[in-house]
Write a structure and sequence with these properties.
The chain is an alpha/beta fold and 728 residues long. Helices cover 50% and strands 12% of the residues.
C-alpha cells in the first residue's frame, strides 16, 4: 500500500498484511468526522481498494479520549440548502458502503465514545470490539438534535441487532456500554480493561485466520432473528408508532426514523434513499434548529471562558480532589454518591450517629442502584463505596478542597455550618451551599473569607438532572467561580452562573407557572385539564405533577423565599399550606395533587372547591395567535414574563443561558428552544399584546416587562432573525 501522509489519519501495514488506520483529528479533544477527515478517509479506502496483499483492515483511534464523537455538528448546522445537505449524506453513505464492500475482513476497535457517524462507520465493518470501561459509550444520538442517523444507521443497525433493539437505540438516542452492546449483538466482544491490549490483538489474529465468529448467547441470536421476521417486525413497528404518536407532532424525527427503518426491510437499497430524504427534510425543520441551538448552548456553557477569565492557572494549582458534604438527606446523599462515582474522595458529615447511619444507607442504596443499572462488578462497587467516608466531627473536613452544605433550608442553620467550616478548613478551600432559594451572600457573612463562598445548586434527583446553578455572591472571586465550574464539569453536569437573587434563575422562572396552576385549580379547572394541556404543549409533565415530584412542603418554602420578587405568592402558599397540613406532600407521601400506588401516579385529586365550571371560561377573544390554547397561554406566559424579567435584571446575562437552564432544569419543551426563543417565535409585539390581555383578565402579575415593551417597539428580538408564527 502507498505511504501517503495524512493530516487526520496514520496508516500502517504489518508483515501479515494487516493495515491499521488510526484517526487523530488535530486540534480536537475528541475525534469528529470533519469534511477534511471524510475526504482523507475516502482517499485511504481508495488506496486499500487498489492495493495488493492486504488481508485485513483495522480502524481505531489515535487519541486516548475515544474513537469518534460523530460528525461535525457545527458544519451540519451551517448547511443552508437541500443540495448541500444531500451531498453530505450521499458522501457519507457512499463512503461507508465502500468500506462494507471491501474484499478483506474489517475490524473497528472501540475504546471510549463511538457515537453517531462513528457507530455508522463501525456498522459498515465486519467486526466490532469494545473496551468495557466506563468511558466507552456507543450510540446514535441524532434524535436529540431533531435528526436521524443519515449514513446508514437506520439501515444497518436493525439488520445487525434486530428491529426492537435498534428502535430502542435510535428513538431514544440511547448510549450503550460495551457490555450492553455485546448483550444486544452490536459488538463481537466486550473486553475487560485489564486485558485490553492482549485480547484486542488476539481477536484481530483470529479474524485474520478466519477463526472469529459471533460469540453471543443463543437468547440474543433468537431475539434478533425473531424481531426481523415479517409479522413480528410489523407488530414491533406498529407499537413504536403508537408510542411516539403524541410526541411526533413536536419531534418529527421520531416518525422519520421509523419510516427509514421500515423502508430498509421492505424496499432494500431504496431504504438508503428514504433515510437520505428524511434526514434532509428534518435538517430544515424548526425543531432541529432549536435542538441544535441547545446543543451549542450546552457546549458554550461548559467552557470556562464563558463565565470567567482564564482559569487554567487556578485549576492547575488548586484542583478539587477531596469533597466534603454536610447533610446526608436526599440531596446530600445524591451529591456524595455522584462525586464518588466521578472519582472524588468524599467525606460525609452529619450531626449525630443515627443520622449518619441513615445517610450511609442512603448513599449505599444509590450506589447499588447505579451498579445494578450499569452492570458493575463487585470490585468496582466496593471501590466506589470506599471512596466515601463518614463522620460527625467537623475537624474531619479540614483537608477538603470543597465543602458543600446540604442541610435544612434555614438561614441560621446554614450560617452556623459556614462559620464552623470557615474555622476548620484551610484558606484555599471553597465553601458552597446547595440551597435552592436562600441568600448565599448572607451565609457568606458568617465567614472570614466570603470570596471563597458561592452557591452550588444541584437539582433532584442529582444523578439525572444535568443542570447545576453556580451562584456568584457579592464577594465571590473569579478563582472560586472557575474552580466550581471545573468541579461541575468533572461531575458530568452543565453549569450556568447566576446572580445571588431570590430563587436564582430556574426556581424564580418556574414558580409563577406553578403558582398559576394552583390558582386555576382553585378556580375550578381540573388537574387533568391543567396537566394535560401542558403535556400537549410539549412539557414532560404538567405543573401539578411536577409539584408532587418536588414536594408540596418544599414548594411552600421556595414560594416564601420569592415574596420579594414574585407577585401574589400568598394566594399560592395558602392552599399549598393546607395540603401540607393535610399530609398531602406529594409523591413521597403517596398523596398530593395525585394519589400514588407503589410510587406510580394513580388518580388526580378533586378540585379545591366544588365549582363544576372554571370561573374564567377559556376564550380566544382579544388574543392574537401564538400557537397556544387558552389554558396553555395562561400557564406558559408567566414563565415567559419572568424569564424576560430575569434577563432585564441580569440574573443571568445571556439570553441563551436562560433558555438552556430552563430546558435542562425544568424540561421546558426543548423543541421550542427555551422561553426566550419561544418569545421570538411568537413575536415580541404579540407577546406584549397577549400579556396585556391576560393582565386585564387575571391581574397585574401578567404585566409585560419594560424590556419586552422596549424591544418590541424597536423591532428587536433576543436571538436575531427567527421563524415567526403566521396568523391563522
Amino acid at each position: 500500500m502507498n505511504s501517503a501522509i495524512y493530516q487526520n489519519f496514520t496508516v500502517t501495514e504489518d508483515k501479515r498484511g494487516v493495515v491499521t488506520v488510526s484517526i487523530d483529528v488535530p486540534g480536537r479533544p475528541l475525534n469528529i468526522l470533519t469534511r477534511d477527515a471524510m475526504e482523507e478517509l475516502s482517499q485511504i479506502v481508495d488506496a486499500i481498494e487498489h492495493a495488493a496483499g492486504i488481508r485485513m483492515v483495522v480502524f481505531e483511534s489515535g487519541k486516548e479520549s475515544g474513537f469518534l464523537a460523530g460528525a461535525d455538528v457545527s458544519a451540519i448546522s451551517e448547511i443552508d440548502s437541500v443540495e448541500e445537505a444531500t451531498r453530505l449524506i450521499v458522501a457519507g453513505q457512499s463512503l461507508f458502503q465502500r468500506i462494507a464492500w471491501l474484499p478483506m475482513a474489517t475490524v473497528l476497535v472501540i475504546d471510549g465514545p463511538c457515537l453517531g457517524g462513528g457507530l455508522e462507520w463501525a456498522l459498515a465493518c465486519d467486526h466490532r470490539i469494545a473496551r468495557a470501561s466506563s468511558h466507552t459509550k456507543i450510540g446514535l444520538p441524532e434524535i436529540k438534535l431533531g435528526l436521524i442517523p443519515g449514513w446508514g444507521g437506520t439501515q444497518r443497525l436493525p439488520r445487525l441487532i434486530g428491529t426492537h433493539a435498534a428502535l430502542d437505540m435510535i428513538l431514544k438516542g440511547k448510549h450503550l456500554s460495551a457490555t450492553d452492546a455485546f448483550r444486544v449483538g452490536l459488538v463481537d466482544q466486550a473486553i475487560d480493561p485489564e486485558q485490553w491490549q492482549t485480547q484486542r490483538d488476539h481477536f484481530i489474529t483470529k479474524v485474520l485466520y478466519r477463526k472469529a465468529g459471533r460469540s453471543h448467547g443463543w437468547l440474543t441470536r433468537v431475539k434478533i432473528r425473531l424481531s426481523k421476521l415479517g409479522l413480528i417486525r410489523h407488530a414491533i413497528l406498529k407499537v413504536a408508532r403508537n408510542g411516539i404518536a403524541s410526541k411526533s407532532v413536536h419531534y418529527p424525527a421520531l416518525a422519520s426514523a421509523i419510516r427509514s427503518i421500515e423502508a430498509g426491510f421492505e424496499r432494500g437499497p431504496i431504504g438508503y434513499q428514504v433515510e437520505r430524504e428524511e434526514f434532509v427534510k428534518l435538517l430544515n425543520s424548526t425543531t432541529s434548529k432549536r435542538l441544535l441551538g441547545l446543543f451549542f448552548a450546552r457546549e458554550k456553557a461548559r467552557k470556562f471562558a464563558t463565565w470567567t477569565d482564564d482559569a487554567t492557572p487556578v485549576l492547575h494549582h488548586s484542583p478539587i480532589r477531596r469533597v466534603g458534604v454536610i447533610g446526608a438527606g436526599a440531596m446530600g446523599a445524591g451529591i456524595a454518591q455522584l462525586a464518588a462515582v466521578r472519582d472524588f474522595e468524599v467525606v460525609v458529615k452529619e450531626v449525630d450517629d443515627a443520622q449518619l447511619q441513615s445517610g450511609r444507607i442512603r448513599v449505599g442504596k444509590l450506589m447499588k442502584g447505579l451498579a445494578a443499572r450499569q452492570n458493575w462488578g463487585d470490585a468496582k462497587l466496593k471501590s466506589a463505596l470506599n471512596r466515601v467516608s463518614y463522620t460527625t466531627k467537623p475537624i474531619e473536613m479540614s483537608d477538603c478542597d470543597l465543602v458543600i452544605e446540604a442541610v435544612v433550608e434555614r438561614d441560621e442553620v446554614k450560617a452556623k455550618v459556614f462559620a464552623e467550616m470557615d474555622r476548620v478548613t484551610r484558606p484555599s478551600a471553597v465553601l458552597a451551599s446547595n440551597t435552592s432559594s436562600l441568600s448565599v451572600t448572607r451565609m457568606s457573612q458568617a465567614t472570614r473569607h466570603p470570596e471563597r463562598v458561592a452557591g452550588l445548586h444541584f437539582f433532584n434527583p442529582v444523578h439525572r438532572m444535568e443542570l447545576v446553578e453556580v451562584i456568584r455572591c457579592v464577594d465571590t472571586d473569579q478563582a472560586t467561580v472557575a474552580r466550581l465550574i471545573g468541579f461541575v464539569k468533572a461531575m458530568g453536569k452543565t453549569p450556568v452562573v447566576t446572580a445571588d437573587t431570590p430563587g436564582f434563575l430556574v426556581n424564580r422562572v418556574l414558580f409563577p407557572y406553578l403558582g398559576e396552576a394552583v390558582r386555576m385549580l382553585g378556580e375550578g379547572y381540573s388537574v387533568k385539564q391543567i396537566d394535560g394541556q401542558v403535556r400537549k404543549f410539549g412539557m414532560p409533565m404538567g405543573p401539578l405533577e411536577l409539584l408532587d415530584q418536588v414536594g408540596i412542603d418544599i414548594a411552600v418554602h421556595v414560594a416564601g423565599s420569592l415574596e420579594a420578587v414574585s407577585r401574589g405568592t400568598a394566594e399560592v402558599v395558602n392552599p399549598l399550606s393546607e395540603m401540607v397540613r393535610a399530609g398531602r406532600l406529594g409523591k413521597k407521601t403517596g398523596r398530593g395533587f395525585y394519589d400514588y400506588r407503589k410510587g406510580r401516579k394513580w388518580k388526580p385529586m378533586d378540585r379545591f372547591n366544588k365549582r363544576q365550571e372554571p370561573r374564567f371560561a377559556p376564550t380566544r377573544e382579544g388574543f392574537v395567535v401564538d400557537g397556544m390554547s387558552a389554558i396553555q397561554r395562561r400557564l406558559i406566559y408567566p414563565m415567559l414574563i419572568e424569564a424576560i424579567t430575569c434577563h432585564q435584571e441580569q440574573v443571568v446575562q445571556e439570553a441563551w443561558a436562560i433558555d438552556l437552564a430552563m430546558v435542562l432544569g425544568t424540561g421546558f419543551a426543548p423543541h421550542h428552544g427555551g422561553p426566550l426563543h419561544l418569545v421570538d417565535t411568537i413575536g415580541l409585539k404579540r407577546v406584549v399584546q397577549n400579556s396585556n390581555q391576560l393582565c386585564g383578565l387575571h391581574g397585574d402579575r401578567f404585566t409585560p416587562p419594560e424590556e419586552l415593551i422596549a424591544m418590541a417597539d424597536r423591532g428587536e428580538t433576543f436571538f436575531g432573525p427567527r421563524l415567526q408564527l403566521e396568523p391563522r
